[in-house]
Amino acid sequence: MTIVRITTLILFTLLFSINNITAQGAFWDPSKECVVDANGACIPNTLLSATPFLTIVPDARTGAMGDAGVAITPDASSLHFNTSKLAFVNQETELAVTYTPWLRNLGLSDVYMAYLGGYKKIDDISTFAGALRFFSLGDINFTDINGAPTGTGKPRELEITLGYARKLSENLSAGIAGKFINSNLASGQQVNGVPITPGNAFAADISFTYTSNEHFGFDGGNLSAALSLTNLGSKISYTSSSTREFLPANLSLGAAYRMEFDDFNTFTIAFDVKKLLVPTPIPFGAPGYDDDNNGTPDYREKSTFAGVFGSFSDAPGGLSEELQEFSTSLGFEYWYANQFAVRAGYYYEHPLKGDRQYLTLGVGIKYNVFGLDISYLAPTNTQRSPLDNTLRFTFRFNVGEANSAGNN
Fold it and tell me: DSSP string spanning 80-117?
């Protein structure tokens, strides 16, 4: 399980050795618009947070659309993206379960993410929803710095979410969700003599969706727009240290245009813009890195809300670097007779802020009350993805029709 050991070590590096997150002597070079090392070469200045599993797209439908899921028609996995759009569902109840193999192209079979989501429409204006996410990092043999065995473990992470969506008018809705997060990476182990314990945190999501009933451009065209703030909550720690780590708070803005050409053909184009609302790392030794000289970078000591609101103006490179921290998703979905779907999409992240760039493809099938979605991811650069050459599956089960705007 070498790769799992590497993954866990990366997480430990984040949690315990982040004081030197960029190389000593690194600084922002305005002429190159990047952080450079001692040799003048640009180096990544990626946003960092604990529990990154919370940002993984949980379902195959959105995974096939380049991760553009904020404003598309709602389904049982919508709680991850945007609770508010569940107020516009046209099914009384839906359940969905997704299985996502992780690092499968490396031959691992025990690293995966499972996601169970569902909703219940209460009346014409309100919907309750819930979701359970479980991320397994497989079996791991722990060793000390000298390579001596220190035991075995099963690193795992868990998220439990409950949400409520309500229409504020015929076209506007709001949603709120609360979640409990448990991250157990190396319970019972020690780092530098400090015992490691499971990390626990609470967070909330707030979202708004606007859906127009008017037609734009094509006959039957419908435009939706949404804003979603997710994972706003307490910081998390894996030790008794007073310094805690940020959750991956996220801002998402999305729009989707859905065209019904006739009774059999429907086409949707969706576009999302996302930004992590966490502090930008300050290069080691740069102004603002550790002004109080306590050995801990000042950006790590910010409160949750200081980190969220400051995340729009704290990058060493100013506005040009702040703009690099936005990622984009473009997705397409075509339905024939509301029974067969073809999907495609593209995701882009700046090379100095993570460099995830990939093309996605997928299909969907509906039969009676059952549905199946499949997605596939193909990187378009040298940055490898844990989902390279991997199929993701979502199974759906619908119960009953509700009197609401039509959705796929």
Answer: GT-GGGGGG-SEEEEEEEEEEE-SGGGT-SSEEEEEEE
